[in-house]
Amino acid sequence: MMDVLSDTLKVVRLAGSLFFSARIAAPWCAESPGREVYARLLNSSAEYITVFHIMVAGTCWIAPLGRPGFSVAAGDLVIFPHADAHRLGSHPEADPSADVSQQVLRVVREGSGSGAIPHLDAGDGHEATEFVCGYLESNQRFNPLIGSLPTTLLVRSAHGAGPGEPEAGEELLERQVVRAEPGDILDSTLRHTVAEARAARPGGEAMLARLTELIYVEVLRRYMQQLPVEHAGWLAALRDPVVGAVLQLMHAHPERPWTVEELAEAVALSRSGLAQRFTDLVGESPMHYLYGWRMQVAKYLLSQTTLRVSAIAERTGYESEAAFSRAFKRAVGQPPGVWRELAS
Fold first, then answer.
1. What is the pTM of this model?
2. pLDDT digits 0-9 by tens, 221-233
3. Which of 149, 157, 270, 283 has the smallest CB count inside 10 Å?
4. Strands 59-64 and 70-73, how do they pair?
5. Does domain 4-225 correspond to CATH entry 3.40.50.2300?
6. 240-343 in CATH: which number?
7. Cα separation of 276 and 288, whole Å?
């Protein structure tokens, strides 16, 4: 059976990396900019960037701009899937410090492409927060997946603050909270990541990058599993017995000349019934989704293989190279050959 999530992540090819590690003494507060600023600082042309913070020691207050904040403790992980701007600080009332915010931007700028993890040490107080900031990026933004993710994903460590009483605003985040259980794979990987961040050993940056990629996939799986039945979106669609089966067919055989009638027959549903159910869950029609997925596969094959354009056209369901080239240019804005050259 086709694993649609794994298939998508293989094609999207998320790559993890680190901005910096930090130890900042209270009181403090810093503003983390949005995706556009980070892309400029990193000199990145990636279509998708997600930002995360791993708490190593102490506590921290985090507030997405315009949304309620919440506290995190050692072992917790906060992911901003859309790299939205947010604040981090020692407590909710702390005012953003231009000095600390500028230091954050400086270490990001200096660390970009240096091959080393820059470290920020700021503040004179005794109560300090230690954390690691990083990001995942991809040159292929797959909108159905990205669009189904919340503003914030909070991963509570089994050995961190614990469930306790909900912090201010956390009740509003309940659908976005993923909890690690003692001894499970998420808990052990988080603890390994925190230990690796504190050890500062050779190869640490590469190890942390891979660990964060693993954590991200596990968080996606758990978030998908705990979505309410009435929830819509691509991840929720994967769980639906009908739409999930259709997605498996499309991903397993993007080269087949699928029609809505054929897909509906495969899942024993009427054409109109499938079209409505698919659109309600995924947010677009089956044929529009198939077209988008074929273009994702095409970009993956163009950038990661040496296959001729004619062979890629065949693998993505086009009868001729000319038809494929027209479809690709319509979706991407460039002919396949030009896009391949720029992506190399």
1. 0.85
2. 989 888 888 889 9
3. 270
4. antiparallel
5. no
6. 1.10.10.60
7. 13
